[in-house]
Write a structure and sequence with these properties.
Structural class: mainly beta
Radius of gyration: 21 Å
Number of strands: 21
Largest sheet: 7 strands, mixed
Shape: globular
Strand order of the largest sheet: 2-1-3-9-7-4-5
Length: 387
Amino acid sequence: MKRTYIGRARRRQPARAPDANGTTNGSMHPLDLGVDAMPMQDTVYWDFSGVSEPSRTGGKTRMYYISAEKVVWDYAPSGRNGVTGSAVEQTAEKYVVPGPGRVGSRYAKCVYRAYTDDTFRHPVGRDNGEGYLGLLGPVIRAEVGDTIVVVFRNACPFTTSIHPQGRWCDTDLDVADGVPPGGTHTYVWRVPEQAGPAPNDGSSVVWLYHSHTNDVSDTFAGLVGPVEITRRGTARPDGSPSDVDQEVFALFSLMNENASPFLDENVHRFAERPYPKSLADEEFVASNLMHAINGYVFGNQPTIRVRKGERVRWYVMSIGAEVHPHPPCWYGNAVTLDRIRMDLGKAVAARTAVADMVPEHAGVWLFQAHRRDCVDAGMFASYEVLA
């Protein structure tokens, strides 16, 4: 059944100011918010009166048609180390090779996918080198002052939603009970200044969107994607920043498949007998902790390709770290992050970061988490700089 929710968000805690550098950072932790809402018929729309209000003039309306869909996802399609071409080390087989009481690299998941219109008959393919996005949902782009309209269909077997994180959280809330299987909703998000770059940021920032019905299990099921917001007056027609030649989106995630709603199905569908006597078995639990970049492990992510001398912006996101964060590391070329040139990013557990690169050295280079335990578990990929 389609419903409309018209409500007013109210802030219980003031939005935090930018940090000492004037930069903003996203967070996967939900803000403490309240909402008065009443069900009506067809659209999820939030009235921003009384809250920090975005400009209602001059912005564009950007339409997105997104479906949450069940798929079988393979973290390591080649079954090998995609960087070296060799077999994975024996100690890493538990992550990619199915066996007695061990799932391997294939899991039932739910992911966000884009369509051309609200019939949801024609999926939007990923071309022009976008295959590396992998598990990520479609990139949602907008400029400060724009309005994002997401027509959402839930084709997953459990209730889901789409919720953008960030400083605009207090001006848009999900329907409390989400969208049931087979249901649709239209979300309307106006983009305020707080969602865009702070004074000392570059021309764009990135936030995460994810299902907010059950934060933990929905995210580990695969329902996550990026929202890119560009400073007012600096965007191309598609919403991307005009001062950047190429963009790369990378989600470093410890996907805990033990917390997925599909755990039982994955065990009985992909593991070999005998099944584990307990789903809390230590070795079994460890085998389901997938240290992934965009849903790929052990270099199985399609190679990210950029061009020498072009302005490349890397949007780095991180979720799911149990104890340790996943600091991103670029081999071969430096990036500028928080106005500092480096090849090792800050630890970004449950946060986002924006790094700019003008590649100088052609070739194929490693892109990985700069932790030995993460690398041993497969959190590495490659990028190629074309001359």
